[in-house]
Amino acid sequence: xxxxxxxxxSSCDDTSVAVLLGKKILANVTANQDIHHDYGGVVPxxxxxxxxxxxxxxxxxxxxxxxxxxxDLKAIGFTSGPGLLGSLLVGTSFAKxxxxxxxIPLIDVNHMQAHILAxxxxxxxxxxxxxxxxxxxxxxxxxxxxxxxSYFQYEIIGETMDDAAGEAFDKAAKIMGLPYPGGPLIDxxxxxxxxxxxxxTKSQVPAFDYSFSxxxxxxxxxxxxxxxDNPNFVQEHIHDLCASIQHTIVEMLxxxxxxxxxxxxxxxxxxxxxxxxxxxxxxxLNTFKNWTxxxxxxxxxxxxxxxxxxxxxxKYLEGAKANMNVLAKxxxxxxxxxxxx
Length: 341
Ligand code: KG4
Ligand code: ZN
What we know:
By secondary structure, the chain is of the alpha/beta class. It has helices spanning 44-66, 85-102, 111-117, 165-175, 182-190, 213-229, 233-236, 238-264, 279-285, 305-318, and strands spanning 4-9, 14-21, 24-32, 75-81, 106-110, 133-138, 143-150, 153-159, 268-272, 292-294.
């Protein structure tokens, strides 16, 4: 009998809860937090307060949608890190009390591993990768090329030294006066723009690492200069600006990814994390005909409870669980797997 597992994600600004039966989704319910729109980024204190308001109704909705009684659950998975500490604490405390009251295992999940493990959710149009594979994990907080050796064995091949790719999108959007999160808006505007209209800095750093902070500064100085001459510059060129910024980020991501494929000799390549919803990145990945590529469905790119539940499922199969003293951790590497039984 396949286990029913509940997964709770609360590491940033989405409260998301899923119920999985084995690897199959019965429900995946997310409450987004609109409150951050006008701030250009997530405000941690507002995020934790919103999680507190959302968590009970979202868990309730997920169980109702899945048509599952909490007494039938076999384990509770939750994000223990990395992320915003206040936000993580809401999910962690809730998961602990729910597991305790039901008398079932509590399973701590590493958010960065969960983004990668989302590829193993059983879903139409999605094929699970074969180990070992490379995963370009691109989110609001991380940008990494990870070598996935097994469900819980990872090696970082390269990562950003400053801003993440998602931050580069969001900060560039903020400079242009667009609301948070800017990534999806840049993606949408870019569809009607010329990616070569403007040229921006592509920072060079050694090996397979990334640096995106120079791009943000470059966009800022460029626009300050242009807006001085024409106050409507951004509005008049929004499509070309978005297309050019997006093109720069995509080129930077793939330049290092191609090198990593060459260096490791591994041509099974996945993408994961919120920025993997980007249409230019998805299109570009499809052009590498000699790679086997894995592109997650949109619903599994940005933070979601299903990725937490699938990671918890694989830990459940190994008998790995957290004890009640487990702490939420703001910083946690993708390489960290707690497999204690
Ligand atoms: O993985 P995620 O939901 O949260 C973190 O773990 O950080 O990623 C959120 C990031 C944000 O920076 C958002 O702007 C970006 O993903 N994002 C996108 C797109 N959709 C979401 N960036 C570019 N294009 C998109 N279509
Ligand atoms: Zn994430």
